[in-house]
Write a structure and sequence with these properties.
alpha/beta; Rossmann fold; eight-stranded mixed sheet; globular
Length: 291
């Protein structure tokens, strides 16, 4: 953790909706004049898409489970080094993983390749990470110990799969069979490396549909915000003004002493109301240290 150079982490599995949460943070940063250095979790995959296909095929032949969720296919030590570097100096390195043809063509590269490593901009106020492994923890690494605010984005698993299936088939051109194979292959790593992160996070935002998602593999559409609720759990509720939150977010209620439930359509509002004061507090601490 760093008082001069804070780090904010948003972690969630593939299809969880972390990119939607990133847009909410972008709005807060722009409104409050916060300059954020950005890191995408995909930057810390170990292999390009083509190489990853070879590694998966080799794993299948050897009876091994290989996935983007596990340690063999990610540079977690590198991620931890970058969190630590930013906290110490206000600068770190990152790169981009080029998913689509358009963004890859614009850079003269192949889809599924990486851009070169580069320094984050100078004179930023904080580091913002969004991806799969911001709070991953093993006997060897713990990048989350360098984060000042850790958030989990955790839809219930059938909704998560529905969102992933629709994204990967409609936006990335994968077949339903290929997406199903990916989900199955990732399951052991999901249990061992994704789920445990949500015990490390300070706040979890879990979207729960109120329509039938029993079989995500035949769902024709993703449940809308109006067809869901968002469960917001605070790891440490001390200092959280729940009466204020309930008054600001209509139709919300408390389900436990550390948990508030809000209509799905008001998740963005809830995040703005909850997170803006926390971000401003980090900025106050930073300014005090710089004086």
């Amino acid at each position: 953790m760093s008082r001069r150079h804070p780090v904010i982490v948003v972690t969630g599995s593939s299809g969880a909706g972390t990119s939607t949460v990133k847009r909410t943070f972008d709005n807060i940063f722009r409104r409050e004049g916060v300059r954020a250095a950005l890191i995408e979790g995909d930057a810390f995959h170990r292999y390009s898409r083509h190489k990853m296909e070879e590694v998966i095929a080799e794993g299948d032949r050897d009876g091994k489970c290989v996935s983007h969720f596990g340690p063999d296919c990610n540079e977690w030590e590198q991620l931890e080094r970058q969190f630590r570097a930013y906290g110490e100096t206000g600068r770190c390195k990152t790169r981009l993983y080029l998913h689509g043809e358009d963004e890859a063509r614009a850079r003269g590269q192949e889809p599924g390749s990486f851009t070169p490593w580069a320094d984050t901009p100078a004179d930023t106020d904080l580091l913002f990470y969004e991806g799969l492994h911001g709070c991953v923890k093993t006997a060897q690494i713990d990048p989350g110990r360098y984060a000042d605010l850790k958030l989990g984005v955790v839809p219930i698993i059938n909704l998560e799969w529905t969102q992933k299936i629709h994204r990967d088939t409609h936006e990335r051109g994968y077949s339903m069979e290929a997406v199903a194979d990916t989900i199955l292959r990732r399951m052991p790593d999901y249990v061992h490396y994704i789920c445990p992160q949500f015990a490390e996070t300070d706040i979890n935002f879990q979207r729960v549909p109120v329509v039938d998602t029993s079989n995500p593999f035949i769902a024709r559409d993703i449940p809308t915000a109006g067809e869901s609720m968002t469960v917001i759990r605070f790891k440490n509720p001390r200092g959280i003004d729940f009466p204020y939150l309930l008054s600001m977010i209509g139709e919300s209620f408390m389900s436990r002493a550390n948990t508030i439930v809000v209509p799905g359509g008001k998740m963005d509002l809830a995040m703005q109301v909850i997170l803006t004061p926390m971000i401003l507090r980090l900025m106050e601490i930073r300014r005090a240290q710089l004086q």
